[in-house]
Amino acid sequence: MSKLFSEENRAAFSKPLNLDNPVVIQVLGICSALAVTSQLAPAIVMGLSVTVITAFANVIISLIRKTIPNRIRIIVQLVVVAALVTIVSELLKAYVYDVSVQLSVYVGLIITNCILMGRLEAFAMQNAPWPSFLDGIGNGLGYAWVLVVLGFVRELFGFGTLLGFQIIPQSWYVENGGWYMNNGMMVMPAMSLIIVGCIIWAHRSLNKEEK
Amino acid sequence: MRPHVQEGGKFHAFHSLYDGLETFAFVPNTTGRKGGVNIHDAIDSKRIMSFVVLALLPALFFGMYNVGYQNALAAGGDMTDHVGMFLFGLAAVLPKIVVSYIVGLGIEFVVAQWKKEEIQEGFLVSGIIIPMIVPVNTPLWILALAVAFSVIFAKEIFGGTGMNIFNPALITRAFLFFSYPSAMTGDDSVWVAQNTIFGLGYNVPDTFSAATPLGEATVGNAIPCETICNAITGLIPGSIGETSVIAIGLGALLLLFTGIASWKTMLSVFVGGGLMGWLLEGVGGNQLEWWHHFVLGGFAFGAVFMATDPVTSARTECGKYIYGFLIGVVAVMVRVLNPGYPEGMMLAILLMNLFAPLIDYVFVQKNISKRAKRAIKK
């Protein structure tokens, strides 16, 4: 038991959450982070999908890492990821159809997510299944929390809602005699790039001495 | 007063504020750092800024009058009460200027204090331009938000005055334009002040709306001749300071006379816009004659006060022609060819702000290679 949660294994899980975050530090997976986060629900679903896929792709590749011929390893990795993405995509269609419509092509595009290929190449090819699994979960969640923050800010200010519930009182709006207006720019991807920038800014100034 | 704000004095926390105000009011005895070699002009940048503000004043005062004029016109009020109209405009515009300065300078002061730098004076001009390029009905909280956004993201994170890639005043407008489109162009009711302020002016019926002439042209309506005449004097609906070509022209004369703005940039903006307008007029499908573009909307204001911004425009002498020319071309292109955007000046200048360093680079490299070749020949 103690071996399962050794120092190294815990680091494999916790580092990507903060100090080695795939989005904030390595600046990977930005395009999907900008594309799917205009509302909170798709952001959460996307984050979880990537977490699941990264974790299982890591495990599978790690299991067969010694049998993969080095020359065709990228193709093998792609096949594994594509299979997992297809499964996740079908599951989303079956259980959360509305969100999967909103996510549209971006679920399929998880195949090309740089975080996935990065973890497979950098971690799963060299490590045993269990640390790879932890690493996949850690990286997926590290990606997910950035998406959730983005989705939270963008939905709150862009639509005045969170997960579809009205947060900003209706009576504040100009149409109802108030003064408030939703910020249209929050809905655009351009603004989410600026918010990612702010998250990176805040993160780096919080972790200055760790560098 | 001064000892208190120096190192170790009791108001040291306010030293940058004190410095800023003192050098604004009095020409400092030294304009350069001590030691080493300094190259600088006889007037420092605070004096340059003051001239630009002075040049903006005719357009600003006329804008205030026009706000009152449009309000009276819409409400069918007394058109001979010029003083009343001006006072109404003053009451409508002044809060915007105050908000813009308080928010913008507030952020600058805090940042200067925080980074232990001198307060930089760049916002002096931006702060007065911003209220002039928004519609009169822009809510103050939105304006404050936009100013904060642009000062932080267009200026401070690039390193403050003189380091910014984009013109902060235009970023403010772009933020408003994309974030709150209904408050910026929306349903045409934003251009004319509708309610009385302190008993001045008139209440306008709720259903009233007034499109700017450019807006009319976009939807394909012909512009009557009187409108063009009014556009030259400035008695048309529009953003506060941009309507009067005459008032802007006065400012332009001051800027050119003092040599603060580059005539090359200014002229080439008009050449580019005129040429493009003429071409598109020839192709047809455009209600405007080529020179109408100069007098309508923010073309003249942008060409005189925004395109010539010494920080964000091209700095090489040949580059200025290219930079200005392309601003004119793009502005007219957006106006005529994109039905979604009646006004293209803001987007054109921001786009060329982006390319200014590239234009400069090309001309600097060209010069270097030319000289290198000359050296090789010998």
Please provide a written account of the structure:
The complex is a heterodimer of chains A (211) and B (378). By secondary structure, chain A is an all-alpha fold. Chain A has one domain (29-210). Helices cover 63% and strands 2% of the residues of chain A. A two-stranded antiparallel sheet of chain A has the order 1-2. In chain A, a hairpin with a 2-residue loop joins strand 1 (161-162) and strand 2. The longest helix of chain A has 31 residues, at 129-159. The radius of gyration of chain A is 19 Å and the shape is globular. The model of chain A has no long low-confidence stretch (mean pLDDT 86). Chain B has 378 residues and is mostly helical. Chain B folds into 2 domains: 1-24 and 44-204, no CATH class; 214-365, no CATH class. Chain B is built from 16 helices and no strands. In chain B, helix 3 (45-75) packs antiparallel against helix 4 (82-114) and helix 5 (123-132) packs parallel to helix 7. Chain B starts with a helix and ends with a helix. Classes of the chains: A mainly alpha (211), B mainly alpha (378). The A-B interface holds A 179, 181, 183-186, 188, 190, 194 and B 139, 141-142, 153, 175, 178-183.
Cα-atom radius of gyration of chain B = 22 Å
- Sheet of most strands of chain B: none
The coarse silhouette of chain A is: globular
**Largest interface chains and counts:** A-B, 9 and 11 residues
Estimate the strand proportion of chain B: under 5%
Strand order of the largest sheet of chain A: 1-2
| Largest beta-sheet details of chain A | 2 strands, antiparallel
State the helicity of chain B in percent bands: 55-70%
Mean pLDDT over the residues of chain B? 78
Task: Work out the number of β strands of chain B.
Answer: 0
Spatial gap, N to C terminus of chain B: 63 Å
Low-confidence stretches of chain A: none
Percent of sequence in beta strands of chain A? under 5%
Number of helices of chain B: 16
Number of strands of chain A: 2
Sequence of secondary-structure elements of chain A: HHHHHHHHEEH
N→C terminal distance of chain A: 32 Å
